């Protein structure tokens, strides 16, 4: 925030800076609008008639997390990618689930619920609105990526708390690492251990520092810590209403 305020002040001092700022905001808005247009044109929106069991889960999570209005949730064909994201445009919130991840809805519904809750946590914490306030800092090498990784850790914990199923959270993150066909065969302890052995390398560290998301083994380890030390994180399996102020 401090870095962004300094940049905004410097831009406002210069008339040319204000022009560049307005141009940058306009281009960002147009590109974002085009992306959402593509999603609306091609994605499948969850409704009472379209995948009603998952739509009901979204409504349940939004009620528990006190998110109103309920965001529009779309499923989008993803060419094999396992991903999901939340976004906001002109006061409306959206959640997009890539189709390969959405296929969890037939057998791994708890894991899919965790993924949805993670994206809803971004909305609950108003991360998209905050990103507009600190936009210059997000463009700063390393600084913006560090903030993004912190947001991901926050949403992991909130999602685990509101779904009340840390094991499903761990499975959901493991699915992102290796896919739904093999995740049950992964030795989680060894996965975390081997990743920690490689964490100190130069390129491994650099890759982590320029990434918007923390390494998956770190995210899984954090959930395990949360499960083993519930009093430290304020996490209670049966208490969905416990909000984590991270």
Which features characterize this protein?
246 residues, alpha+beta, 4-stranded mixed sheet, 4 strands, 8% strand, disordered C terminus
Structure explained in plain terms:
With 246 residues, this protein is α+β, with helices and mostly antiparallel strands. It has one domain (2-233). Helix content is 63%, strand content 8%.
Unreliable parts:
236-246
Widest beta sheet: strand line-up: 1-2-4-3
Task: Tell me, rounded to a whole number, the average pLDDT.
Answer: 88
**% residues in beta strands:** 5-15%
Proportion in helices: 55-70%
Transmembrane segments: 6-31
Protein name: Peptidase M48
Cofactor: Zn(2+)
Subcellular location: Cell membrane
Provide the fold topology.
Elements: H1 2-13, H2 15-42, E1 44-45, H3 52-65, E2 72-76, E3 84-89, E4 92-98, H4 99-102, H5 109-124, H6 127-133, H7 135-139, H8 143-163, H9 166-178, H10 188-198, H11 202-209, H12 216-228, H13 230-233
Parallel strand pairs: 2-4
Antiparallel strand pairs: 1-2, 3-4
Helix pairs in contact: 1-2, 3-5, 5-8, 5-9, 8-12, 9-12, 10-12
